[in-house]
Amino acid sequence: MAGLQQTNSEKILLSWVRQSTRNYPQVNVINFTTSWSDGLAFNALLHSYRPDLFDWSVVASQQSPVQRLDHAFNIARKHLGIEKLLDPEDVATACPDKKSILMYVTSLFQVLPQQVTMEAIREVEMLPRHSRVTREEHIQVHHQQLFSQEVSCFTFL
C-alpha cells in the first residue's frame, strides 16, 4: 500500500521542481521517472536559479537528450559541487529509475533555494495518478511490443 501513494517528501520535492520550472513551457514535471528523460527538467531547474551559468535556448533547442543530461550534470558538478551520480544514458530511457532521479533531485534541493508554496503542493496533489506504472509492468509491456514487432516482421518475410 505504501508504494501506491507519494510520500510527503516526494510531494514537496515535486512541488519545488514544478514551481521552479514553471516558466519553462517545454518542461512539465509530473513524476520522478519519464519527466526527466529528455534532460530539459534538470537544465530548467538549474537555469531557474542560476541563469548566469548557460543559455537556456541553446540547451533546449539544439541538443539531444543525452547531451542535455550530460550538460546539466556537468553544470551541477562544476558550479554546485554535486557529484555526477547519474549516467545520461541511464536517464535518457523510456522509464528511468525513480530512486536514482529522486536521489539526484534531492541533492539539487539541498543546495538550491528551497521555498515551496502551498499552492505548488496543492497542484501536485491534483496531478492524475493513473499514469503510475511499475518498472516491471513497463518492462513487460516493452517486451510484449518487441515480440509483437518480431512476429509482424516474420510474417512479412
From TrEMBL:
Pfam families: CH (PF00307). It comes from the Eukaryota. CDD domains: CH_DMD_rpt2 (cd21233). SMART domains: CH. Gene3D superfamilies: Calponin-like domain. Residues 7-113 form the Calponin-homology (CH) domain. InterPro entries: CH_dom, CH_dom_sf. SUPFAM superfamilies: Calponin-homology domain, CH-domain. PANTHER family: SPECTRIN/FILAMIN RELATED CYTOSKELETAL PROTEIN. This is DMD protein. It comes from Centropus bengalensis. The gene is Dmd_3.
